[in-house]
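Still learning. Any example?
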Amino acid sequence: MHNKSMSNENDPEVNKEVEAKGPQSMNERGAMRSRRPASEAFRKFIGSNWGPRDDSGVQRSEVADFLPARHQKLSRTFPADRLVIPAGGLKVRNNDCDYRFRAHSAFVHISGLGGEKEPDAVLVAEPVEEGGHEVVLYFKPRASRSSEEFYADSRYGEFWVGARPSLEEMETMTGLRCAHIDTLPDALAKDAGQVQLRVVREADSNITSMVDQVRKQAGLVHGEDARPLDEELTQELSEMRLCKDAYERDQIALAVNVTYQGFDEIIRSLPRAVGHRRGERVIEGAFGARAREEGNGLGYDTIAASGNHANTLHWIDNDGPVRPGDLVLVDAGVEVDSLYTADITRTLPVDGKFTEVQAQVYNAVLDACEAALEAANKPGCIFREIHEAAMEVIAQRLEEWGVLPVPASEALSASGQQHRRWMPHGTSHHLGLDVHDCAQARQEMYLDAKLEPGMVFTIEPGLYFRADDLAVPEHLRGIGVRIEDDIIVNDDGSVTRISEDIPRTVEDVEAWIARVQAEGK
């Protein structure tokens, strides 16, 4: 059936426009649905009779007080270089619809901007004569209400996506000097040749091209030859996040707290999940709703893996049923508005009670968790030793159960590693703005580094016995367990589980499920 309201075929106004302009470009065709008014009378009318803006809610953000120390760290490494850190741009999801914007983590850390701010923005750290850098935020401020952008630009226009901040408002919020993004090319080209430029290459290809053109014209190293220079900047921006400041620690603790609330929602959803053909999606949705209500959203795609799906480490299809008697492994984290995330895994018995075999596997993993935490608490602990401590327990339990084909001592040797068949991933990673934070750091600053105050990381051992694994007894097949907690190194060098309050022992998990489900009745 032809829907006349969806067609421009018989619209005299559209037909006149087409006749006047000639054949439409592909971009113009994409905008046909908007039916944008184009008369001069409309333009004058829509730009008039607007009341004054209320800017009373614009305040300096809490994180602004922590930015100067972050900038000083950067200046110590690159005292004379112009540093370019793009936020990145909007990315097309399909046709004229974009994904929600999420800025590059290095930009977030240096600017303090969270949420969905600020697509296409660029931070430039400009070296100054007296030493250090002045950090300038270049972005696209809102246009006036008499401009065409106000009503016609569906990507940036205020009528479509809401009011963007003004330059003055952004300066108030961030404490940074701000400038219009249109002035960025001149700022990058100023004194080029006398100052070296570095850019976070992967954040925004357009900005990387702009920087490279400036370098080329100034006779500086450019293109692939400049990659080592740029990667040094990316490396430093990653490494300077290894130790979190007080603001970051508070935000991660907040993310863990909201994630706990999300797991409560998961437990409430279990009865409905059991009755649904895609019960894993029910679990995923329950957590996602709380993440969106209380935070910016998910820190990463939720793993809601029931039964044998728990043995696929990154099971994010979440399209399977949740059956009575299953264990369901949920790996999930809320990203709060500042864009810091939690990363928690709990393995829950769907019926509210672990079977004897399930509890046996669960307790082995829990013992590995405790051994890893104990190792982290030892003075001078090297990051890699956390994993090694967990693996000793895993190998010992597998030997006790008659699963290992060799003694645990042989498996734990560099030439053995047979136990890793049932836990092939690492035990720990840093956590912060990225779920796998600081991933561009050097090995000596990450795996081989001593734990330092302010470091935040996970402990997440597991055991995965696939349903088709003939190397294990039949009663273990199809069971997958992971337990993951978020850990902080305190100022005195001791470590604390930030997620201590989220139940984790067999008895506490069973009591947790009973309590939450009773509250919902």
In short: The CA atoms of residues 129 and 480 lie 59 Å apart. Confidence is low (pLDDT under 50) at residues 1-15. Residues 246-274 form the longest helix (29 residues). The two ends are 48 Å apart (CA to CA).
